[in-house]
Every structure is written in structure tokens, then in C-alpha cells.
């Protein structure tokens, strides 16, 4: 029997953004109950068996009562139709199940985690997030997050409330994306900064290394984004009349062409989940080493073993999608003055780009 590892989702019907997906759009209240999603295909030789017994035998550490509750809530689908717990599994059945995850204490524990603070005053803080750091606690990441670090940093700051479901957060970036984030230190600052992000008056640019030669020096991608129906861990460009999708606009500019890859700057008008990663893939230029969107494969170049080894070394050098939130601009929430921040590329991306520069310089035919 074939199975797919569980995906953890926050909403059983809409399959909304998971905790691993960090959007830069203003944060909305979400259903905080987590669900485990499993997908199975019954073997051709599968004997007739009650589906509750079938699932208990195929899902680790799940009780029969939890399975029965899921069936009662129409969260068990066989061939696309909800079934009750006494349904008998047949050969070839396609089974999808959402099982409520056991409740968990969601209180935020302050942790003494170093932060790269770019700016701080009485109302806000700007931090340069490192790769691999999840922004907000969620399933599988209940500690070691940016919020845990902020709770420690602000432990003596009376206006910063760790009881807030998302203390201080105005926007977010993906776990393996590096770069600038602004954090509000009091409710008034959070309200004003959230308004700026909502009204698109904030300024954000990213730098990304993408596969292939981007021919146009600059361009604008205005394509709605929604969750993929084939892979719920991915976002995708979709039709404008699809009500489940949201408008997404990315402006890009070529900074440097490096043979089989291109360094681009992306300026966001909206902030959808995985927006740059999805839009650049849509153009035919997935981000370098972006595992989720196919950029961890050799998409351009030669078939020579030396080139293959070169790219593998590049993957090792920057073991994540090559994306950095480089600049951030907004108006100070209480003082009204314009603030603008710029940060250097992280070492892994800078070394990656330098490696491609050296490779390209030695091969004039691919410039």
C-alpha cells in the first residue's frame, strides 16, 4: 500500500496556510486547531475491512475513537466522498483522512536565543532573521522560533504581551529565507504597522538567485496565487476567477546574469505565501536550490560530470532556497518619519554568487 507522510494543517476544509508557510501579508486570525492529513491507496489485494480498523493499523499512535470522531465530522473521504466508520475498505480505494491533533499548551516560552537586531526603539524592533529559524511556533516547531526569542528579549517590556497569539508580528518570511522583519513592541505600533502593510505603503525588496537566463531586464508579474490542489504543501499560479486565489504582484529586475543562473531583485506589491518562489517558477526560473518548487535539481547547463559536481557543491554551499529579504522601508508608527533598512547578503548566498561568478568568468561561451 502506498502512503504519503502526514501534512499538518490548521483548517480541515480550506487547508489554510500551515505553520511552515510564512506569508508577508498582514496576519489574519486562523483556526488554531491542528489536523494531521493522511492519504492512502488500498492495495489491489486488500480484504474488506472496516475503515476505522484499517486506519488504526496504518496510522501510528492514533486511537480508534479519534478515527471515529473524524468520520463523524466527514473528515474521512474515500474516492472523494465522506464515509462513516463502518465503511469497508476495498482494493484500490483512495483514502484521505484528517485527524484532529491532540490539544497542546500553546503558551509561548521565552528562550535566550541570539537575535541580529538592526534597529530598536521604544515602539519597534527590526531584526535580520537567519536561515532555518521559524518565525512563529507551530506543529513541529514549538521552540527555537523568532517569537520565542522575542519573548525573552522583551521579557521586561510591559507593553509587549506574550499572550498575544502573534506577539509583535506584522509580517513573516519563510523558514529558510533570510532577511529583515519589523516587530512591534506595543499594540499601537502593531496596529499602525499592520495598516501600512495592508495598504501596501511599506517597501520591501528581495534578492534571489534563480535558474536560467532571465532575458528581460525587468518585468511585472501580476498573477493570482492559491494553494495547489495536487500538492497542498505548494502554492501555485491560478485562474483569476478562482475564488480560492488571491491577487499577487511581483516586480523583478535583473541584477546580474551568471550563465546558467541569474541574480534578480524582486519588489513586492503584495505579500502572498511563497510569492516570489511561485512567481519566478511560473516564469520558468525557479529559485536556486528551492526544494519545494524544483530548484534543487540541475535545470540548466551541461551534462558533463564536472558541471554536475560544481552544482552539487553549490547546493551544499547554500543548502536552502537562495532568497534574502534585503531591504525594508516604512513610516515610524508614532514619529511619522520614514525608516529604511538595508542588509548585506548572508554568507551562504554571497559565497554562492561568487562561486557562479568565478565559474562564468572562466567560460566566456555561457556569458
CATH topology of the largest domain: Pseudouridine synthase
CATH class of the largest domain: Alpha Beta
Q: What is the terminal-to-terminal distance?
A: 49 Å
**Mean pLDDT metric:** 85
Major sheet, described briefly? 9 strands, mixed
Describe this structure in words.
- The strands form four sheets. Strands 8, 9, 10, 11, 12, 15, 16, 17 and 18 form a nine-stranded mixed beta sheet that branches.
- The protein has seven helices and 18 strands.
- The protein folds into three domains: 2-100, Roll (Structural Genomics Hypothetical 15.5 Kd Protein In mrcA-pckA Intergenic Region, Chain A); 117-198, Pseudouridine synthase (2-Layer Sandwich), CATH 3.30.2350; 203-366, Pseudouridine synthase (2-Layer Sandwich).
- It has 367 residues and is of the alpha+beta class.
- Helix 1 packs across helix 2 (64-72).
- The longest helix is centred in the last third of the chain and has 15 residues, at 347-361.
List the helices and strands and how they pair.
Elements: E1 2-9, E2 35-41, E3 49-50, H1 51-58, H2 64-72, E4 76-78, E5 81-82, E6 88-89, E7 94-100, E8 117-120, E9 124-129, H3 146-153, E10 178-184, H4 187-198, E11 203-211, E12 218-222, E13 225-227, E14 235-237, E15 249-258, E16 261-268, H5 275-282, H6 305-317, E17 323-331, E18 338-342, H7 347-361
Parallel strand pairs: 10-17
Antiparallel strand pairs: 1-2, 2-7, 3-6, 4-5, 4-7, 8-9, 9-10, 11-16, 11-17, 12-15, 13-14, 15-16, 17-18
Helix pairs in contact: 1-2
